[in-house]
Design a protein that fits this description.
The chain is of the alpha+beta class. It has 8 helices and 7 strands; from the N terminus they run ααααβαααβαβββββ. The protein folds into 2 domains: about 30 residues; about 140 residues, FAS1 domain (Roll). About 25% of the residues are buried.
């Protein structure tokens, strides 16, 4: 009798803990790669990530901050530039271009604004693609290299954050 009175509550505790762990796993935020791949406005970026074989890396532990250009941003590139970058023989260049959009830290918009203000109005950032970005404020909008604007900020993921941008960041030639 003593064993039964102990075994039933113990079993219920184990089952309850297992159910809680399963619920927590189901609520885990998406990765930065998942955010991009689930977005209707980032199909070109998704294609580029797949072609560059970077999806697995962006599903990794991170943390990452991804500046995600929209399909419209890619459409604004010069004629043929995107098609050329997506060619298999240009994979290294594509990886570098995509790397210009990823920083190995988690930086929410408030953090970025604070860094810009702390640095006197301009904050330099080096990306995974070894691109040098210059972050500034134009009113309440974050600008990158004076030409690209963060249009939607703080799409949070379990391994970082995505900021939607209206231009494609290219490495220096």
């Amino acid at each position: 009798m003593k064993f039964t009175s102990f075994a039933i509550p113990a079993a219920l505790c184990v089952l309850g803990t297992a159910a809680f762990a399963q619920d927590a796993a189901e609520e885990m935020p998406a990765t930065v790669a998942d955010i991009v791949m689930e977005s209707e406005d980032h199909t070109t970026l998704e294609t580029a990530v797949v072609e560059a074989e970077m999806g697995e890396a962006l599903m990794g532990e991170g943390p990452f901050t991804v500046f995600a250009p929209t399909d419209a941003a890619f459409e604004a590139l010069p004629d043929g530039a995107l098609e050329e970058a997506l060619m298999p023989e240009n994979r290294d260049r594509l990886v570098q271009i995509l790397g210009c959009h990823v920083v190995e830290t988690r930086a929410l918009a408030a953090d970025v604004v604070q860094m810009i203000e702390d640095d006197g109005g301009s904050h330099p950032v080096t990306t995974m693609g070894n691109c040098e970005l210059n972050l500034t404020l134009d009113g309440d909008m974050v600008k990158i290299n004076d030409t690209v604007t963060v249009t939607t900020a703080d799409l949070e993921a379990g391994n970082g954050v995505v900021h939607v941008i209206d231009g494609v960041l290219l490495p220096a030639m």
